[in-house]
Amino acid sequence: MRHIFIFLVFGCLCRMDGFGQTEEDSVKIAVNRLFIAMKNSDARGLKESFTDSAILQSLSKNKEGNFIIEDEKIREFIDIVSKLAAGDADERIQFETIKIDGPLAFVWAPYKFYYKAKFSHCGVDSFQLVKISGTWKIQILLDTRRKENCE
Questions:
Q1: Is the separation of the CB atoms in 68 and 60 below 8 Å?
Q2: Which pLDDT tens digit goes with each residue over 41-88?
Q3: Which of 42, 113, 114, 129 gives a 20 to 30 Å CA spacing to 86?
């Protein structure tokens, strides 16, 4: 009986240490880490979410109604978000698709963005993540932004 108890305790501890975590779970954690850092205005957490050569882009319509790609420097993004009050930047995502091939992952995640608790816009986040030294990091984040069809 004592051996069964020890085995059960060890089994529970192993599950708590991440032995039961799938690679997909690890990718979700990496993506969620970004949004937790955004919501907390955490500059360090934001920086650690991205690779050193990460690309951040948005696809939106200009005044003429044409789609344009806007590049944003990671450093500028971190500076802007980290100066906000905690809770001001609240992006709520839904994981729709996750694909993984070794050290490369793709995530498609529709989102709604709230600024100071008010709905701002919605769209889709398209992530390319890479696993570096055992940690998933965002290499490319390309999103769409719109104010309509945000059910």
A1: yes
A2: 999 999 999 999 999 999 988 999 999 999 999 999 999 999 999 999
A3: 129
Q: Residue 18 phi/psi, 5° resolution? A: 95, 5
Domains in the chain with CATH codes: 23-144 (3.10.450.50)
- Which residue is it, tokens 């108890």? 5
* Cα 117 from Cα 104, distance rounded (Å): 34
In this structure, the number of other CB atoms found within 10 A of the CB of residue 141 comes to: 23
Residue type, 44: R
pTM beyond 0.90: no
What CA–CA distance (Å, rounded) separates 78 from 89?
12
8 touches 2 (CB < 8 A)? no
- Could you give the angle at the alpha carbon of 129 between the alpha carbons of 146 and 119, nearest 5°? 25
